[in-house]
Each structure stands twice: as structure tokens, then as C-alpha cells.
Amino acid sequence: MSVVLGTATPGGGFPVYGDAVAATINEVDPALGVTTRNTKGSIENVPLLEAGQLDLALVQGEVVHEALRGIGRPPASLAIFAAMYTTAGMFVVRGDSPARRIEDLKRRPVVFGARGSGLVILARYVLDGLGLDQAHDFESIYLDRAGDGPAMVLDGRAAALWGGGIGWPGFAAVASAGGRFLAPDADGIRRIQTRHAFLQTLTVPAGSYPGQGEPIVSVGSWSFIMARPSLHEETVYRLARALHAGEPALAKRLPQAAETTSANTLAAAPSRELIHPGVRRHLRELGLV
Predict the structure, then answer these.
(1) Residue 121, class by beta-carbon neighbours within 10 Å (0-12 exposed, 13-18 middle, 19+ buried)?
(2) How does pLDDT run across 22-69, given as a tens digit for each residue?
(3) Which pLDDT score is estimated for 31?
(4) CB of 162 within 8 A of CB of 141?
(5) E strands, the chain, where?
(6) Is the torsion defined by CA of 59, 62, 64, 70 positive or negative?
(7) Distance CA 229, CA 214 (A)
(8) What is the pTM of this model?
């Protein structure tokens, strides 16, 4: 058996996470043969799943939201395999940057990430809620490789790098060189959620990045491992069972993957019907449904 898991461009968090998931599942059930494939990211992963070119794929929460609701495209017929982790969106700047608020980045060059990344979509929603336009209020920079962003901030070509979550490689790189984080304040979060109620209030705990002495509160959502709906129920059941059995090993491989649990998949899914039948079968066996 062979199962192909789509991730994203090198240098971002998705390839690191995908490799950890594949290694964990294969360790528990080697016959499943999960392999990872770099893609352009969440935005490309959805049509690749629909075309059957991927079996599973990592998809950022806002892209899942738009795909399932048919925002800007026909509704996608995809199923949730697992909840990955929460992604709180924010900016990182150099330690000597004069910027203290997101609004201070207006008319400055800002790296919003890889072109196909779902983080770009999250930025659009966050900025819209703050009354800012991603395309017109910033000198927006989009990358072919997510890993190229930190150097652009550190050498002054960009004023800030947008990203999200805990353990994100781009943030770790800039924070290690003395970087600071910018996130919406309480009033900003209220304004964002008034316009985009599906975004959740999320906290990045203190110490998640080098030099980060205080927790950072922002908005974001759960990212998901999505499955093509035609992936056989028995295969998905075995994948779900292996992932559940490997939860401790996965968390040991990658700290942010500690959020990848069967219980969180059930809690994070917009509805149970969106969870793949093979996963629902496993959740019933666990007594969660």
C-alpha cells in the first residue's frame, strides 16, 4: 500500500509536520507506506486532493473554510482526516524595528509567505478585520519558497514576516536573532471577529520562541489533514488508528504536534459529517462518539 501526503514548500512548518506524521504512522503500521510530497501549499493541495493526485494533504484552516463553503470556487468534496494544530497569526520584525503595532507596517515591504500558503489567506482576513487591505496598504512580498522569508527581514529587505502558530521555522529564525512579534490588540481582535466570526482567539504561550517572554494572543484557526473522499474507508481507518497509537511519539518528534489527537479532531471539525467515515469508525471505537 502507498499513501501520499501533500505538504508545502521547503522551509515552512508543513513539510516538517508532514514528515513527522508520516514517520509516526509508518512506525506503527509500516504496511501503510505513507510518503510526503512537497507542494506549493494549502491552496494547491485542495485541487490536488480533488483530482486524486494526493491521498492526504495539509490544509490551513482558512483554506479549509473557503473550500468547504465554496468561497471563490465551487464547494470542495473533501473529508477531514485529522486536526493538526492551531495557528495564531502574527508578524515578526527585527528587534531594532520602529514598528510597535500592525498599523506601523503600512506602506512597508512585508513578506506574507509562499504564494500557495494558507497563511496568506489568514493574513487577508486578519487585515480586513483591522480595516487594512493586504494588496494596497503594504508592499506585499510573496515567495516561491517559504524558507526565504526570514533572511529578507534580517537583512532589511522586508520590514516584517507574517506567519503563525507554535514552532514555525520562519519565526524561530528571526526570533533567534532578537526579533519581536506584532499581533492585534484586544480591540483589534474584537473587530476582526466581528467581521470574521469563524476566527478563534488563540494564545501562543510564553517561551514558544527564543526571547518571547510573554504569551501572545491573536486570532486564527485549526489546520487539518484533509483526505480525498474516495480514499477507501478501511485505509483511512487504519491510518487513523495508527496516528492515534502514535500520538505520544508524534508529540516527541514535534512539540506543536501534541495538538494532533483524536479528541481534538472531533472537537475542531466544523461538523461530524465532515470527518471521513473511516475516522468516524475509529472515533466510535475509542468511545468519543
Answers:
(1) buried
(2) 999 999 999 999 999 999 999 999 999 999 999 999 999 999 999 999
(3) 97
(4) no
(5) 3-6, 34-37, 56-59, 79-93, 109-114, 139-143, 160-164, 180-182, 200-204, 216-227
(6) negative
(7) 42
(8) 0.86
Distance CA 129, CA 266 (A): 28
Q: What is the pLDDT of residue 202?
A: 95
Name residue, grid cell 515552512: 12
Question: Which of 110, 138, 83, 5 has the alpha carbon at shortest distance from 268?
Answer: 83
Report which secondary-structure segment, H or E, holds 283: helix 277-285
Beta 180-182 vs 139-143: how paired, if at all?
Answer: unpaired
Max distance between CA atoms of the chain, in angstroms, equals 55
With a cut of 90, say whether residue 191 has pLDDT above it. Answer: yes
- Calculate the alpha carbon distances from 284 to 229, 231, 259, 279 in Å: 19, 19, 20, 9
Cell of 279: 475516522
What are the tens digits of pLDDT across the range 91-127? 999 999 999 999 999 999 999 998 888 899 999 999 9
Q: Helices 118-129 and 61-69: crossing angle, nearest 10°?
A: 90
The pLDDT value recorded for residue 11 is: 85
User: For residue 181, what are the β-bridge partners?
Assistant: 92
| Under 8 Å between Cβ of 99 and 159 | yes
C-alpha 127: how far from its chain's center? 18
Q: In the structure grid, which three cell numbers stand for residue 227, read together? A: 483526505
